[in-house]
Every structure is written in C-alpha cells, then in structure tokens.
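User: Structure please.
Assistant: Input sequence and predicted structure:
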Amino acid sequence: MSSIEILRQKLESKSVVRVGGAFDAMSAKLVEMHGFDAVWAGSFAISATHALPDASIMTMTEFLHVTTSMVDACNIPVIADCDTGFGGPTNVSHMVKKYENAGVAAISIEDKIFPKQNSLLEDGKQELLSEKEFVAKIIAAKDARRNSDFMIIARTEALIAGFGMNEAIQRARAYEKAGADAILIHSKKNNPDEVFEFADTWGGKLPLVIVPTSYPTIKLNELKSHKIKIIIYANQTLRAAHAAMNRVLEQISNSESLSEIKEEISSMEDIFHLQKMYELKKQEEMIEHNLKKMGYIN
C-alpha cells in the first residue's frame, strides 16, 4: 500500500489523525517510532534548520530535498507544508508533480501572498491572495496530480490576517468547491474557541485540519465533538531540539570534561538503533554467507 493510500485509509478508519512535525529524516523517523499517523514536513522547521527566516526564502527544490529524505526514512505518510505553492498556478502544477513523484502523500498550500511570513510572527505582514487567485492554484494542483488520492490541503489564513469568520468560511467553501481534499483553518488565538466556531459553522464535508501551536490546551476528545479530523503538532520537535542543544552546548562550553554534563543525552546505542546499524551488520553477514555458498569465499 502506498503512502497516499495509507493516509486515505487512516482518514477513513480513525476519528482523529495525529501528525507529528519534523525537520529532517531523523526527526521524521522519531515521529514514526512514537506512533504518529503521519509526518508534517514543516516549512518553519525546515527553514530554521537552515538558519533562515520562515519567509519564502528557501526554494522549492531545497524544501523538496529535505522532504524526500523524510519519505525515504519512513513508512508512514509525509504531508508537505508548501507555503503559498512557490508561485502562481503554473508553479503549483510543477510542485505537485515533483512532490507526488517523490512519494509525498499530501501537500498543504495557503492563501497568503508570496513572499509570506510566518503566521505567528508578532507584528508580521499577513496579506491574502484574492479568493479567485487561490482557487486557481487549487484547480492547477488538482489537474496536475496523477493519483486522485494524493491530497491537496487548502489552508486559509483569513483568521490570521484578521479578515474575520465570515471571510474564512466563504473561502473554505470556495476551496472545497474548487476541489481541495481538506481545509486547514489556522488561528493565532490562545484558545481554540475561534477554531471551534469555524468548525461548527462552515458546513462543509471535507476533513478539517488544525495546528494548535498557539492554543496548546486543546484536547483530542474535543476535536471529535467538533468534527476536526487532523491535528498537526507542527514545530514541537524543532523547539525541543533547539532547547536541548542550547543547554548541552552551554554546559560543554563551561565544563572541563564531558562527564560534567548534566543534560540527559541519547546514548550511542540509541542512535545505532535509529540508524539500524545492527540490521546492516546482519545484512553483511547474510551476503558473506551467500558468497561462501557460491565459492567466492573459503
């Protein structure tokens, strides 16, 4: 079963699909190892690992390279955060072909202008495309995909940009009509009330997606009652890694020896397990055994 089919199957069989954020192959593999349903290849997190702003600076090729490494490392679906689609409808069409060919199960595009800024940036510039322009991108994405199960997630930033609930609902309905497979409703409020109001009001049939970075108190059982289908924990792995590396590097910098480090770090065996080093050894032994049977080794 392909990753595209796996994602669709999870949407049908599970009340809530849980998606863990990642920024490279290692973090994606850890998401898989901890039982999440899918990986979110987040543009904020990937940009941060390149020490660049989340402001449409990295190219599609750069994001695709990182995302492909996640696909190669994991057996669970990868959902790619593709920002504004890297340009107009023609760019979106090209992007969909590349990401689908790479084995990505779904892409998310948002209705902000290019270049965009992170939605949660204080005093950030949050400007939206016209509804018509973004609908054109959805149509281009839908037309470009080869597998009809490849998911196109349409993300509206109407609430982020301060356009209000009516605009968010109108856009979501237009995006559903244009052929999107899911709607991501984003909010920067510190509680989920705005998201719940949207979920209870918009009346569409598509799966709803949320990213509760700014409202972390939301509970899984609340999602079910508001018919929210997908929850994305977009950047917690990045922030945890950043905090842990800062602490351990500070301790190393101020210590005479590594034995003075108080921060808990993974053992070499933990990393060997992640890398499947012992599986590699077994593979080498199997090859050697077959070579002996064939007379190449005495």
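The chain has two domains: 3-234, 266-298.
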